[in-house]
Design a protein that fits this description.
2 copies of one chain form a homodimer. Chain A is mainly alpha-helical and 184 residues long. Helix content of chain A is 66%, strand content 7%. Chains A and B meet through α1, α4, α5, α6 and α7 of A and α1, α4, α5, α6 and α7 of B. Chain A binds a DNA duplex (28 and 28 nucleotides) through α3.
DNA sequence: CAGATCATGTAACCTGTTACATGATTTC
DNA sequence: GAAATCATGTAACAGGTTACATGATCTG
C-alpha cells in the first residue's frame, strides 16, 4: 500500500482537494492510518504526473482557490488492481516489544510499572475509539449513504477494538506472571 | 524508541560489532523489529559521536578486522532512562485496514478472497513463529543463561501469537458476516 | 567452481515529521 | 483582538530500503 492508493480510494467517489483529503484522513481513517498535509500535497503532484488523477482549479472569491483532483480511468484501474492484489508481506514493527525484550534489566516493580503504563495507554485509546469513531462512521454514512461501505468501516473499528482488548488481556496475564519472575 | 535504544540493549551485555548486531536483529527480535545492515552501521557511528558507545578494533588475520562497540556509562544511563520512560504515544498504522476500508467497491467474492488471503498470510506467519522462535529463544538462553530474560522473550512471543490468533478470529467473524453484506 | 560466511561501508531513494510561509474571513 | 477555518505550498530532517562495492576464506 502506498499513500497514493488511499488517496485513490477517496477520490474514486468524488473529486477532492488536498485540504479535503487531509480532513478525510483525520476523520475517517485516522484510527489506522494518518497522513500529514505536506505528504498529501507531495503525493497528489506525483499522482498527477503518473496519470492517476487530473487537476482542475475552482476559483473562489472569498477564499483561496481550490485544486480538485479527479480520478482517471488509469487511476481506477490501479485502485482495483491494488484492492485485489496479493496481500502485502506482513511487516511487523512493535517498538513496545523492544522495551519488553530488554526489560529483564529492570526491577520487578519497574517491570510492573512498564506494563501498567502500557495498559493505561491502551485503555485511553479504547475510550477514544468508543467515543469518537462510531459517530464519525454515522456521519460519513449520512453523506455517502452506502450500507456496504458502512459495514466495511465497521470492520475496521471492530479490528481496532479487538486488538486493544487482546493486548489488554495479554498484559493482565503478564502482570499475573510477574509475581514469580526468576531473579537470576 | 529508536534503533539506537535497541542497539544499547544488545551491547549492554557484551561488546558487539555491526555484523554481530545484524545477526542479533535477524534472529532474536526479528519477529517484531528489523534493521538493515546500512541502518546499523549508520546508527553506530552516531551513537559513538553521542558518547553512548566506544569502539575498539580487533585485528584478525584470516578475516576482515572487527570493530567492537562497548556501551559507556552514559549509554547505560540512557538505556535505563528509556526503559523506564513514559510510554510512547500509540502510532497505529495498518495498511491492511486501508484495503478493507475501501473494499466496498469489490464484489462479494473479491471481498471474501481478500479476507481469505489475509488469513493465509497470518497462518503462515503463525507457522513461522511456532517453528522458528522457540528454538531461537532456547539457543539464546543457552548462551546468556538468564531465566529472567528468557521470561521476557517468551512474553514477546506470546504477544505475537496472541495478535495472530485474535486477527484470525476477527477474519472468521467478518467472513461469516459477508453472507448478508448489503448490496447498495 | 559456485555460493555462503565474514566484515566493512557508501549512495540514492522513498516515506514520514516538523516547522515555516502567506493571507483573507469568520467566530468567540 | 485572538484563534480557528479555508487553502495552498516549501524546506529540512529522520528513519528505513535497495543496491553497489570490496575481498578473503570456507563449504558443498
Amino acid at each position: 500500500m502506498s499513500l497514493g492508493h488511499a488517496i485513490l480510494g477517496f477520490v474514486s467517489g468524488r473529486p477532492l482537494s488536498g485540504y479535503d483529503l487531509k480532513k478525510r484522513f483525520d476523520h475517517s481513517v485516522g484510527h489506522f492510518w494518518t497522513a500529514t498535509q505536506s505528504q498529501i500535497y507531495r503525493t497528489l503532484k506525483r499522482m498527477a504526473d503518473d496519470g492517476w488523477v487530473t487537476m482542475t482549479v475552482v476559483d473562489q472569491d472569498d477564499r483561496p482557490d481550490r485544486k480538485l483532483y479527479h480520478i482517471t480511468d488509469d487511476g481506477r484501474r490501479e485502485l482495483h488492481r491494488w484492492l485485489t492484489a496479493e496481500p502485502e508481506p506482513l511487516v511487523i514493527r512493535h517498538p513496545w516489544l523492544v522495551r519488553v525484550f530488554f526489560a529483564d534489566q529492570l526491577s520487578d516493580e519497574e517491570i510492573a510499572a512498564l506494563f501498567e503504563a502500557r495498559a493505561a495507554s491502551l485503555r485511553a485509546q479504547r475510550e477514544r475509539y468508543e467515543v469518537a469513531i462510531p459517530p464519525a462512521i454515522e456521519e460519513a454514512f449520512r453523506q455517502i449513504g452506502s450500507n456496504r461501505a458502512r459495514r466495511m468501516w465497521q470492520f475496521t473499528l471492530d479490528y481496532g477494538l479487538m486488538r486493544l482488548e487482546a493486548e489488554l488481556r495479554w498484559i493482565e496475564d503478564a502482570l499475573a506472571e510477574l509475581a514469580d519472575l526468576p531473579e537470576d
